[in-house]
Design a protein that fits this description.
elongated; Multidrug-efflux Transporter Regulator, Chain: A, Domain 2; 6 helices; mainly alpha
Length: about 140
């Protein structure tokens, strides 16, 4: 199938296909006598595998490793599990970091409900002090 047909079936754009070819995730297909790429039907499933792995948070380097492992035997399952465990740990750390940021912003927002005389905003105070320092000399 041609590039546009494959891209449509897999839900990606043509540039993505070319990029995956350059990275080695997708084998360069043979060309028709007219010079068009002629992808095998199996390329659709490969692209769906890649997209699903990315949706789960895997980087393209990890996806590449998973693609190679998908072609292997039972030992590949252990290796794939190790990649997934590492990705999960990274995601959990990111979630914890985002939660801390959200909590901090919540605390800052909560100060807006206080009477103006009781409010204290470190960010605005720092900006205000920086502005005063510029005009002193």
């Amino acid at each position: 199938m041609r590039t546009s047909e494959l891209a449509g079936r897999a839900g990606v754009n043509a540039e993505t296909l070319r990029y995956y070819e350059r990275r080695g995730l997708l084998e360069a297909p043979p060309r028709t006598p007219g010079g068009y790429r002629d992808y095998p039907v199996a390329a659709v499933e490969l692209l769906r595998f890649i997209k699903r792995a990315q949706e789960l948070g895997f980087s393209l380097d990890e996806v590449e490793e998973l693609v190679h492992l998908d072609r292997g035997g039972p030992k590949s399952c252990d290796s794939a599990r190790a990649v997934a465990v590492a990705r999960k740990a990274d995601l959990e750390q990111r979630i914890a970091d985002l939660q801390r940021m959200s909590d901090s912003l919540g605390d800052l927002i909560a100060t807006c409900d206080l009477p103006q005389s009781d409010r204290s905003c470190a960010l605005l105070d720092a900006i205000d002090q920086g502005a005063g320092a510029e005009g002193c000399c």
